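Request from the bench team (R.T.):
"We need a structural guess for the complex before ordering more pyridoxal-5'-phosphate. Sequence and SMILES attached. Just send the tokens back."

Command: build protein-pyridoxal-5'-phosphate structure.
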Amino acid sequence: MITETQESYQADERGYYGDFGGAFIPEMLYPNVEELRSQYVQIMQEPSFQKEFKALLKEYVGRPTPLYYAKRFSKKYNTKVYLKREDLCHTGAHKVNNTIGQILMAQRLGKTRIIAETGAGQHGVATATVCALMGLECIVYMGAIDIKRQAPNVARMKMLGATVRPAMSGSRTLKDATNEAIRDWINNPVDTHYIIGSVVGPHPYPDMVARFQSVISAETKKQLLEVEGRENPDYVVACVGGGSNAAGLFYHYLDQPDVGIIAVEAAGKGIHTGESAATSALGHEGIIHGSKTLLMQTPDGQITEPYSISAGLDYPGVGPMHANLFRTGRGEFISVTDDDAMQAGLELSKLEGIIPAIETSHALAIFETRKFKPDDVVVINLSGRGDKDLNTYIEYFGL
Amino acid sequence: MNRIQQKLQEDKKLLSLYFTAGYPNINDTMSILQQLQDSGVDMVEVGLPFSDPLADGPTIQESSTAALKNGMTTQLLFDQLKDVRKTIDIPLIVMGYFNPMLQYGVEKFCAKCQEIGIDGIIMPDLPLAEYEAEYKSIFEKYGLINVFLITPQTSDDRIQQIDAASNGFIYMVSSASTTGSQSGFGNTQSEYFERIANMDLNNPQIVGFGISNSDTFQAATAFAKGAIIGSAFIKHLTAHGADSVKAFVKTIR
Ligand SMILES: Cc1ncc(COP(=O)(O)O)c(C=O)c1O
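Reply to R.T.: structure attached below.
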């Protein structure tokens, strides 16, 4: 499931996707990042690693996740829609594929202390979960504002034995939690591994996280072959915050030109309202968290605060893989407003009996405007379930 | 010869101070520089504030946030420094993060620095490999010295590489930490300072991070050529105001 493809839309050896990527890190982080960079591919390819990774994905996470043909949803939009059910993963989202991989990596590097950042708390929960599983110390940085907004996930992390530390700097949300995690790593260079939650950060993180998530498209290929008689759909669709669920679904299709790639970003209240997280539309090339990529910033190069109703899409940058898909035109980028996403979430619940995470609802919303042919096969990454978002749904719909 | 190189040849231990431009007040830049020079400070790092300063602890983070709120921008700093060489002759280094420099335009930024009379640049998140591949020729074209950092975790091989790529001094980070997180030096630091001193590098070393008073300044310069003070100076400015520079320098030497 982890392949060594080095084709055009994959990262090159220096961690570049076209113009984007690299490792723009202070010297204090160099030994840590270099240790990881020089070993990650080799470690991932070791048979013992593969064996343990696959076993945990199967027995602990519950993989393979189903590829479900959404009959009533397909009928409504007059095309063939499959849902890749990452919402059925343990902890409720795709995030755990990555944390399982990284905890095994951390163990092999001899690390005993784990740090992570989290926005909505999904990645924090997935990290706290694998730390409990392996008996490792876990510290999760979370913006002070997000701690208030996402109380149930904070409680989950605490039950799992993690320490949740509030990020008090800057805007006190996800980007600041990431800054704090990086600062922690600078201060603890020997015993600590930083489990980044998406395909962002300095090389090798974007490529490593994409490889761990690539199990999503590896399974999709097999499953689609069984039901449609072909491995390749006509389109793959995923929401993009940092871009990890998208990277997982796109991974084995990146260099298959017959597969259309559709990335869905959060427009928030509308792209031009000043309250948006649509990085491809609003971002410019720059450096965020050690990676050269597209990010939302002022003309003076100060990173700005994004907005989306969905905390998981509320990141001012995007992984370098996606920046390259956007710039080269390989990917089609669509942005969806809060309102359209919320309606799509409600619609899927009623049509298919599946309450999606609000992040995922963004990907579902494109069918109102983006039309597909009746015999097109479209695979959507159903990246997470809506339990964590119930309060937002309740408030929004007055349930 | 560049002012930094000249200064490094003086037979004394160098005291260098960092402050965040635009803090405490937007227009303090020139006054702080003048006071620093009048107090006998050897060199200054002028901090260009950034929204997300990864390598900095709370003190410099807060001064950066305040400076940005006050309205500091790259262009405004260059405007404030326009006539700096009429009154200030100690070496000046711009220290910041790479993204604002990238948005201004790396070449335009360097050209502006040369025009003003800036001598060097410290960008902690512009690493050696990226610098050598993409930007070295531009820095050199405008006569700017790029300063690299090393830490107690930096391997000897890499220190040699950094030494070979440097043409001024090496910024020796005193411990594995962000700025301002330390209150004194222990045996680990002394051993590290001595180890580096014994490597006989081509470039002199100046120690930074965790230097806050006369004692830490003495300890740092026992082996190194000089020391840089940042957070402690910012704290002093916060407590005593922008006109109190001389009083702070007096407590150091
Ligand atoms: C269910 C779900 N989908 C998507 C995302 C966005 O992250 P990424 O773009 O890395 O998949 C998150 C992040 O928290 C999430 O919880």
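Two things stood out. The two ends of chain A are 42 Å apart (CA to CA). Chain A has two domains: 17-59+95-208, 62-92+214-397.
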